[in-house]
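Bumping with the actual sequence this time:
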Amino acid sequence: MRADRTFAYGATAGLVGDLLLGDPRRGHPVAAFGRAAGAVERVLWRDHRGWGALHTAVCAGGAAAAAALLARGVRGRSASSVALTAAATWAVVGGTSLGREARAVGGALAAGDVEVARERLPHLCGRDPQSLNEQQIARAVVESVAENTSDAVVGALVWGALAGVPGLVGFRAVNTLDAMVGHKSPRYGRFGWASARLDDVAGWPGARLTAGLAVLAGQDPRGAVQAWRNDAKKHPSPNAGPVEAAFAGALGVRLGGTLSYGGRVEHRPVLNGTGRPVQFGDIERAVRLSRRVGWLTLAACAAGRVAGHALRVRRAGKGRG
């Protein structure tokens, strides 16, 4: 079976698997990678960028290399190749769990139980929940849904389309390392620098595709384009900026502003300043937009693989001519 069809069939099966099953409660491959990366960190940690780069190379490179060996082992066996692609896709995407956790917080807010909402919020993001009121919690959830649509779904599918199973696994490894050590803290300011920069590079195409598809799939395409164009560069993250701005415009809400991480207060620029404040009902709208973006990404990536194969065949034909 051609590689483009292997990806299309396998990625579709994996995304359906995520829709039906979500993430396992125990034994998730990403959690196993996180434990292994933590063990490597305990050996390699130094307050130095070079040692951090080595940690990134060992962990992310090792994961991608292992995936490449598995893919090579099933090469030429169509059913096994599709099954491996499906398993890898299911393991690395997290759209269903993202929606489930977001809806849990939204349900608590709808019921007026702010304390339960605060208890659930850390499942989505690292903000200090005790410092947030109802509106700020809802805003944090929508921002997390937007950013994680790119990180947990779109980016993985993009790299799967570009590099097959090693691309799927390698991207999620890089993204996981960034979450573990890529933040600016006394311990990881230097050690996590390489992971953070690599995540910026790896996440660039997926973030732009996420923003573009949010324009197409949202209720206000013009507002999404305007917010993306005007506000994306204001965000401190080169990848979260376009995604959150496009989601804000598509949903007609205002994102950004003051937030707190680990006791540190940040004052971020407002995205889509003409939008209204986020309400708990917007969480469900954001989850639905995220799901539409995920399926559109699958279609775009599969079509891209088919078009790429056709282009290579055409060029080969001209070369023989």
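The tokens above came from a reply further down the thread. Residues 134-181 form the longest helix (48 residues).
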